[in-house]
Write a structure and sequence with these properties.
The chain is 31% helix and 26% strand. The protein has helices at 41-48, 73-88, 107-116, 136-141, 155-165, 184-194, and strands at residues 2-9, 12-19, 27-32, 52-57, 98-103, 121-127, 146-151, 172-177. Helix 2 packs across helix 3 (107-116). 45% of the residues are buried.
């Protein structure tokens, strides 16, 4: 089943797409800055492995006109919180164990919201991005198992990871991928081990 979703904000509507297979193992939230696509390589991989996928944009077209729009961690965190509220109140998604797969500029906000919603976000995979921008409090409070992926030779992300490590106490793992690797593949394995029932569904 496919559904289009809308989330109203003061700056305009945010659009999302939900792909819902029969008997899903869980729900993977794929936040995007703008212009979502549930059938990109990452989303398709999760679907092929039996996961429901919600791809949702966090910024409106008007907000994306500003060059620093993706650097506002507080606003992106609020948007992710609103999306988790939507999931919690949606009949198709509310009972599914939820994980987040985020990358680049959205990583700090994903960590913050996972720390705040520790009963709802049960696993987290992030790709590159400056994870330490989530802030010390969020890093210390994070309990969701965290998989950190480094794509190609991204040194800034590696340095941010090293800065964040001393504050993290959640189950965690870091892996470096090649430029040709699909970051959803290790995430599928991670979520299968961490989401209730996913490994046996």
């Amino acid at each position: 089943m496919r559904r289009d979703l809308l989330l109203d904000t003061p700056s305009g509507r945010l659009h999302g797409q939900l792909a819902l297979p029969d008997k899903p193992k869980g729900l993977v939230l794929l936040p995007r800055p703008h212009r979502v696509e549930v059938d990109d390589a990452v989303g398709t991989t999760f679907q092929q492995n039996g996961y429901a996928v919600l791809a949702m944009e966090l910024l409106s077209a008007r907000e994306m006109q500003f060059a620093d729009a993706t650097q506002d961690v507080a606003r992106l965190t609020r948007r992710l919180t609103d999306i988790l509220d939507l999931i919690r109140d949606d009949g198709d998604m509310e009972r599914l164990p939820c994980a987040i797969h985020a990358r680049d500029e959205l990583v700090p906000a994903a960590v913050r919201v996972a720390a705040q919603r520790d009963r709802q976000v049960l696993a987290l995979c992030v790709c590159d991005g400056l994870i330490d921008r989530a802030g010390v409090q969020a890093l210390e409070l994070l309990t969701a198992p965290l998989l950190m992926l480094f794509l190609a030779a991204e040194e800034n992300s590696s340095q941010a990871w090293q800065r964040a490590l001393k504050y993290l106490s959640c189950p965690l793992e870091a892996r470096r991928l090649t430029a040709d690797d699909n970051p959803a593949v290790p995430a599928v394995q991670w979520f299968a081990q961490r989401l209730p029932g996913a490994a046996t569904s």
